[in-house]
């Protein structure tokens, strides 16, 4: 992105140079115009690439984050299952420890 | 089988919960988007803009300032700083009406500014010449900014006793929809503007009448 912005600013500088050139200096004007067009074409191609890679990167990171949800849910379910089982075992254990006392 | 049936609602509830958490973490919260504009003197402070701290400017007296734009828009922004010359009666930029100053344009600076970056521009200027009528009306004022000469024809008038002028700096941004520069910027549905002004008194005995 830094390189793209640098190139865009160089185009602005070249445009300023072009505007300040005397109208009779046609050779320099044509040369600068060609340079501007070339740089803009390069920026256009690079911007498309940057946009595509940024889009892929964002999609991938979203996919990773969303795919963690079923894994976390499965893990949570297993934890829930074992906690419930342990609780039941504890309840049964406590039930068998009960003593019947006469009053 | 019975256990699976019993655990299925637990799994589905947790799945919904975690997907909601994932969704809230991936969406970017709407934050305020803004640009900052400031002008500093040669020693990097917001004072001592003029030599000897006197706003009286004579022909050939050089001022060395630096203005800067901070981009907090979250994306690359094409920014333009318009430098205008005004006097006491000049209509200033209006924050409510989102309108620029009604003053002649001296020059402008354009730059693409990256997100979270500061664009600093050295601004060295001096009044190189001016012509005025006996009634004090300025015919022409010539300013040298960063070694480029800018001539303002029919600049804002001022009186013979005191010629208070001001340099107005306006921040404009490129609007991709209208394919043109606009004053200020859009923050969601709201339009904001940023501008600055620095007053100076032109010493009329230093120019030509």
Present the secondary structure layout.
The complex is a heterodimer of chains A (103) and B (209).
Chain A: H1 2-20, H2 26-96
Helix pairs in contact in A: 1-2
Chain B: H1 2-26, E1 34-40, E2 56-57, E3 63-72, E4 77-87, E5 105-113, E6 118-132, E7 138-145, E8 148-153, E9 164-175, E10 180-183, E11 185-187, E12 190-192, E13 195-202
Task: Report what the structure shows.
The complex is a heterodimer of chains A (103) and B (209). With 103 residues, chain A is mainly alpha-helical. Chain A has helices at residues 2-20, 26-96. With 209 residues, chain B is mostly beta strands. The longest helix of chain B has 25 residues, at 2-26. The model of chain B has no long low-confidence stretch (mean pLDDT 87). The interface between A and B is medium-sized, with 21 and 22 residues.
- Residue-averaged pLDDT of chain A, rounded? 89
Form type of chain A: rod-shaped
Number of strands of chain A: 0
How much strand content do the residues of chain B show?
A: over 45%
**What's the CATH first level of chain B?**
Mainly Beta
CATH-defined topology of chain B? Immunoglobulin-like
Distance linking N and C termini of chain B? 103 Å
User: Could you spell the SSE succession of chain A in H and E letters?
Assistant: HH
- Percentage of helical residues of chain B? 10-25%
* Structural category of chain A: mainly alpha
Low-confidence stretches of chain A: none
**Name given to the CATH homologous superfamily of chain B:** Immunoglobulins
């Amino acid at each position: 992105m830094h390189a793209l912005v640098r190139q865009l600013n160089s185009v602005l500088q070249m445009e300023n140079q072009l505007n300040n050139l005397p109208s009779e200096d046609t050779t320099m004007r044509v040369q600068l115009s060609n340079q501007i067009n070339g740089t803009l074409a390069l920026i256009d191609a690079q911007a498309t690439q940057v946009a595509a890679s940024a889009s892929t990167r964002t999609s991938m990171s979203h996919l990773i984050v969303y795919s963690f949800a079923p894994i976390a849910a499965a893990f949570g379910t297993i934890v829930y299952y074992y906690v419930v089982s342990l609780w039941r075992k504890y309840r049964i254990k406590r039930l068998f420890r009960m003593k019947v006392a006469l009053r | 089988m019975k256990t699976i049936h019993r655990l299925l609602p637990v799994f589905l509830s947790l799945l919904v919960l975690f997907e909601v958490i994932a969704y809230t973490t991936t969406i970017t919260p709407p934050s305020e988007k803004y640009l900052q504009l400031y002008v500093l003197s040669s020693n990097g402070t917001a004072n001592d803009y003029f030599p000897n701290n006197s706003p009286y400017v004579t022909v050939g007296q050089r001022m060395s300032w630096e203005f800067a734009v901070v981009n907090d828009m979250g994306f690359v922004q094409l920014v333009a700083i318009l430098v205008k010359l005004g006097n006491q009666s000049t209509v200033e930029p209006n924050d409510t009406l989102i309108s620029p100053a009604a003053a002649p344009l001296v020059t402008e600076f354009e730059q693409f500014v990256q997100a979270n970056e500061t664009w600093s521009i050295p601004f060295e200027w001096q009044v190189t010449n001016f012509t005025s009528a006996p009634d004090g009306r300025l015919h022409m004022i010539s300013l040298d900014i960063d070694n480029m000469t800018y001539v303002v024809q029919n600049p804002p008038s001022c009186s013979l006793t005191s010629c208070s002028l001001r340099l107005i700096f306006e921040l404009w941004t490129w609007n991709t929809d209208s394919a043109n520069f606009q004053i200020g910027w859009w923050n969601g549905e709201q339009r904001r503007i940023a501008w600055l002004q620095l007053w100076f008194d032109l010493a009329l005995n230093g120019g030509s009448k």
